[in-house]
């Protein structure tokens, strides 16, 4: 049933490339025995758009160069009827012509960079494709830690003190940055502004540690944030599913790590590098916190989901002072690792049901969009032509 093709898009030019592959594999595997036909859209580390059956097998990703050579280049396009398709752009095989795959909906499974920051979502909007997850605005805001905190602060939601700076500022006047960090008071957290999965994140207890952390973080992002560390720290996460008009919250979780602050290894390699993504991380579900604190965090999660105008599934991460139980917003993940399915299992929803729900929300959101007037019939250009507007007329034309 070609009109029921679900494109799962993943990979991308991002330090979180491999994590994205794991989330996509979980999504595609969960939809295997449904009425949908699953089509992979893999964006390589060099930015190439690829599709084809080899991309459905996780073992093939052990050799990315060989996999890229076996896959088929593709792009979004419109067919003769103006419908969006995934268009193969090269011929694979002697007797096989490039194919067009009509798109029912897209499930973005990217983490970080252009796949999660609204750029890919904007591409879907341009091609009028239904897609799961948050729209462009929420995606871009969620990826920018500074703007996300500014939005929460504007709505009187609790956040810790922070400041951000660019690499040019660090090179030009390092002492000013160190001075601001001193004013916030140590310990502080150093974070790339537009990355996730704890990549480049470090805790600094003094100026020397801060300098080393900043130099490391600039390998991943041109814009860094230094924020006051919450200590003793307890991280609590909660997932939200739905739209700003109708949503539900999952139970809370308390992630566990070898250090107070979770690392990339804690999140994704705690089982020795298995294919489970975020589901492999150590955590307490439901979180071992009071019902009152859990309810407060769930309420904050719904509020933040709404003000960001998020949709689909998101995970809200909070910093909690383990002694005072004060709660601070940390970040919103508009495409959470493994789609946070492990939190929804506690609500009686398995991975397949979660993915089907995301597809349904995507189709409903798209229906609302295309149900509005999207063009305006007018003879404005004819009127302007009659009145005379100086344009290209009379300009020098290219020689033939």
UniProtKB/TrEMBL annotation:
Pathway: Cell wall biogenesis; peptidoglycan biosynthesis. It is found in: Cytoplasm. It comes from the Bacteria. One of its GO terms (cellular component) is cytosol. The keyword Transcription does not apply. PROSITE patterns: ATP_GRASP, DALA_DALA_LIGASE_1, DALA_DALA_LIGASE_2. Mg(2+) 1 binds at residues 317, 331. Its EC number is 6.3.2.4. GO terms for biological process: cell wall organization; peptidoglycan biosynthetic process; regulation of cell shape. It catalyses: 2 D-alanine + ATP = D-alanyl-D-alanine + ADP + phosphate + H(+). Cell wall formation. Belongs to the D-alanine--D-alanine ligase family. This is D-alanine--D-alanine ligase. It comes from Fodinibius roseus. The lineage of its organism: Bacteria, Pseudomonadati, Balneolota, Balneolia, Balneolales.
């Amino acid at each position: 049933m070609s009109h029921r093709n679900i494109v799962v898009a993943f990979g991308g030019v991002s330090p979180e490339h491999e994590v994205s592959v794991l989330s996509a594999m979980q999504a595609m595997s969960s939809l295997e025995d449904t009425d949908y036909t699953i089509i992979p859209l893999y964006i390589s580390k060099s930015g190439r758009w690829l599709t084809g059956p080899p991309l459905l097998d996780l073992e093939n990703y052990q050799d990315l160069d060989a996999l890229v050579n076996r896959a088929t280049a593709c792009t979004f396009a419109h067919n003769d009827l103006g419908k969006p398709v995934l268009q193969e752009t090269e011929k694979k095989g002697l007797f096989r012509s490039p194919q067009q795959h009509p798109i029912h909906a897209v499930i973005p499974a990217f983490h970080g960079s252009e796949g999660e920051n609204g750029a890919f979502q904007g591409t879907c909007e341009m091609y009028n494709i239904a897609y799961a997850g948050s729209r462009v605005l929420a995606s871009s805001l969620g990826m920018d830690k500074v703007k996300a905190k500014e939005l929460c602060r504007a709505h009187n939601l609790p956040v810790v003190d922070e400041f951000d700076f660019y690499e040019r500022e660090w090179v030009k006047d390092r002492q000013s940055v160190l001075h601001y960090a001193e004013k916030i008071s140590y310990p502080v957290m150093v974070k790339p502004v537009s990355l996730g999965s704890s990549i480049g994140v470090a805790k600094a207890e003094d100026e020397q540690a801060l300098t080393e952390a900043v130099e490391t973080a600039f390998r991943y992002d041109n814009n860094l944030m230094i924020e006051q560390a919450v200590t003793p720290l307890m991280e609590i996460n909660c997932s939200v599913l739905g739209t700003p008009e109708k949503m539900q919250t999952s139970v809370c979780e308390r992630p566990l790590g070898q250090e107070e602050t979770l690392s990339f290894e804690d999140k994704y390699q705690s089982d020795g590098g298995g294919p489970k993504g975020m589901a492999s991380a150590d955590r307490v579900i439901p979180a071992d916190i009071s019902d009152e604190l859990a309810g407060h965090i769930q309420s904050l999660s719904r509020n933040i989901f709404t003000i960001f105008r998020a949709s689909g599934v998101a995970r809200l991460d909070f910093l909690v002072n383990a002694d005072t139980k004060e709660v601070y917003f940390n970040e919103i993940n508009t495409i959470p690792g493994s789609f946070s399915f492990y939190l929804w299992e506690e609500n009686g929803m398995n991975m397949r049901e979660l993915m089907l729900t995301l597809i349904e929300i995507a189709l409903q959101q798209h229906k609302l969009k295309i149900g509005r007037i999207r063009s305006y019939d007018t003879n404005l250009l004819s009127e302007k032509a009659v009145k005379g507007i100086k344009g290209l007329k009379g300009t020098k034309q290219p020689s033939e």
